[in-house]
Design goal:
The structure is a single chain. By secondary structure, the chain is α+β, with helices and mostly antiparallel strands. It folds into 2 domains: 177 residues, Oxidoreductase, molybdopterin-binding domain (Sulfite Oxidase, Chain A, domain 2), CATH 3.90.420.10; 123 residues, Immunoglobulin-like. The longest helix is centred in the N-terminal third of the chain and has 14 residues. The N and C termini lie far apart (59 Å). Bound molecules: ligand MTE and molybdenum atom (MO).
């Protein structure tokens, strides 16, 4: 068989099946496509020189991939929040330019020259570090997610915000470079081999809010980082330039930005941010506190309300994110029928500790209505709960730590909507 006849045979087969798309959803090449057959303007002239964008920005056609806020949540933009466009991102790394921001008193601007970090309290040698000092200690690189405890917090009482950016976008996942907090505490003379039972550190930022939080010593010495780079470049101003604290797997509020002081103490401070805020009031009126770890959670990012199916029936890639503050994600299941039946998704790579995992379900869509859900499992055996299960134990008075299974209703046109299933 010559190439010509085999090609003709292939086309005939395609036509016989009445298909305009091939098996992988690709276009049939029978009709000449001017974008392939004709010389286009971009091939008829010259492109930009290398002097046009010394610091590159996304191309204008991607201008909708931006942080957004929710108007009724954002009466005041200083003590506020915006959301990562996770519906439009792929892989796992969040570019700094669209990573959500949460400030209690605005993003402050500081130079490296003005930066100081004090370590005091129960240490042998209270010290003040400059930025240059920090750069002379051994560095580490780690990818970690940072999730605000209030992520998904508007969904407790019912399905409310129509977009995964708004329901789940108070999260980012970046590669941090920094010095371990253990190294800095040891430099200040903390005897890390001694009895540190019941010892805590209190960390505060240089901004007006100070955002002070108490961290048990065990966590402080385990994996916390004094970070000065994210995704290979300096932290952006809004993420704490020049230095922030990274507290892997624990609620974003503890990741103090513009960190200025670390005090070693005999107990926790019980600051505003860990009593009046960032505690979870239960049905009976009592509150849970010290709920630092972010429980296993996942969500389908596409299709979703801001990312409808636009290609019609046939092959469909269901794409989503999973993460857990207790280690690594081991499995994610996807349901198309609101949790009645489940298929195990493909993890793009093995789950990594306290970092986001991308999952895929490579499937076929026949235009049927779907109630899309995803359910994460982590290395401790923990399984992401349904909304009903979470409400059973937590009631409806909470804001923080809502890690329930999310449902998107996808209609026959491919449009998606935030719904609840009972
Ligand atoms: N100094 C300081 N640190 C802070 C805050 C703040 O307002 N001031 N906000 C906290 C909260 S509530 C969260 S969720 C994270 C958000 O980090 P991001 O703005 O880099 O996304 O920073 C935390 N660290
Ligand atoms: Mo937060």
């Amino acid at each position: 068989m010559t190439n010509k006849t085999s090609r003709r045979a292939f086309l005939a087969k395609g036509l016989a099946a009445g298909a305009t798309v091939g098996a992988a959803g690709t276009a049939n090449a029978a009709t000449p496509d001017p974008l392939i057959t004709e010389v286009q303007p971009w091939a008829s002239g010259l492109g930009d020189g290398v002097d046009v964008s010394p610091y590159g920005l996304p191309i204008s056609h991607e201008a909708d991939v931006v942080r957004r806020n929710v108007e009724w949540l954002t009466a005041d933009t200083i003590s506020s929040i915006n959301f990562t466009p996770i519906h439009a991102l792929e892989g796992t790394i969040t570019p700094q330019g669209c990573a959500f921001e949460r400030h209690h008193s605005g993003a402050i601007e500081m130079t490296k020259g003005d930066y100081r970090l004090m370590v005091n309290g129960l240490v042998d040698r209270p010290l003040v570090f400059t930025y240059d000092d920090l750069e002379r200690f051994p560095r580490e690189n780690h990818v970690y997610f940072c999730e605000c405890a209030a992520n998904t917090g508007m969904e407790w009482a019912g399905a409310q915000l129509n977009g995964v950016q708004f329901t789940h976008g108070m999260i980012h996942n970046m590669e941090y470079t920094g010095v371990s907090l253990r190294t800095i505490l040891e430099e200040a003379g903390l005897d890390t081999a001694g009895d540190l039972k019941d010892k805590w550190v209190y960390v505060e930022g240089a901004d007006a809010s100070s955002n002070g939080r108490s961290i048990p010593m065990e966590k402080a010495l385990d994996d916390c980082l004094i970070a000065f780079k994210a995704n290979g470049e300096a932290l952006r101003k809004e993420h704490g330039y020049p230095v922030r604290l990274v507290v892997p797997g624990w609620e974003g509020n503890m990741w103090v930005k513009w960190i200025r002081r670390i005090e070693v103490m005999d107990g926790p401070v019980e600051s505003r941010e860990e009593t009046s805020k960032y505690t979870d009031t239960l049905e009976n009126g009592t509150s849970r506190k010290w709920t630092w770890e972010m429980d296993a959670k996942s969500v389908v990012t596409s299709p979703s309300p801001q990312s409808p199916i636009t290609h019609g029936k046939g092959p469909l890639v269901i794409s989503g994110l999973a993460w857990t503050g207790r280690g690594a994600i081991t499995r994610v299941d996807v349901s198309k029928d609101g949790g009645k039946t489940w298929e195990t998704a493909r993890l793009a790579k093995d789950g990594e500790k306290m970092a986001m995992t991308r999952f895929y379900l490579d499937t076929t869509w026949d235009g049927e209505e779907m109630l899309l859900q995803s359910r994460a499992m982590d290395e401790t055996g923990y399984v992401q709960p349904t909304k009903a299960q979470l409400r059973e134990t937590r009631g409806l008075n909470s804001i923080y730590h809502n890690n329930c299974i999310q449902t998107w209703l996808v209609n026959s046109k491919g449009e998606a909507e935030n719904v609840e299933v009972s």
